[in-house]
Specification:
Elements: H1 2-12, H2 15-27, E1 34-43, E2 51-53, E3 61-70, E4 75-80, H3 89-99, E5 109-112, H4 119-127, E6 131-135, E7 157-162, E8 165-172, E9 175-181, H5 197-205, H6 208-219
Parallel strand pairs: 1-5, 5-6
Antiparallel strand pairs: 1-3, 2-3, 3-4, 6-9, 7-8, 8-9
Amino acid sequence: MADNTKQEKVIDKVKNFITLIDSNWRKYYLPNQHIVLDEGIVAFQGRCKYKLYNAMKPEKWGLRLYLLCDSSGYVWRAKVYKGKEDSQENYTTLLTLSFIEGLENRGHKLFIDDFYTSPTLLFELEKKGIALIGIVKPNRKSLPTTHKSLKLEPNQTKVYAKSHNLCIYFKDKEKPLILLSNAYPAFDSTRAEGKPLAIEKYNQYVHAIDQANQEREKSYYKYIHEELK
């Protein structure tokens, strides 16, 4: 407990600065229609419990952030990731709802991966006038129960609908996936088979966080210094 309190105090030292930047991002810009919630890494080599190591990254040590971006890569809201307790489904639902505050009923479409997506979140966002397009884990609650016995051939699609809310099952070559969408139909007048339209739109927009990370890495000023023990 004492260690957690100490680490919270470390974050508190820059809390006002983070809050200022975060509020200014929202003050001067309104995201375009397509928004993405995902994680990003900021290089950091100081002392902090929340520092993570990734051998695959150019900057091995860093802090993980939750980021809300639009399709241009503009970061509109951010929050520091503080550990495994953040991985609970209820937490990710509340986290997502907190990130879209201020965007209600403006026609936005939110693209997220299976860490966040759930039928509960789909319905909660719908109440706030925000559409959802997201890959979902097969063990999430409230999915159609028949999917457990569902067997698809490559490029085959099965769609379950509740009003305009869709649960799309699609097998792309070898790996099947499940996507929830109330923004795009599975198919439109231009196609009647193949990869569903909703999945193509998901693949088109979900990587906005990667673009934001690349732009941030370009702007880094490298300063090498020794730590004081």
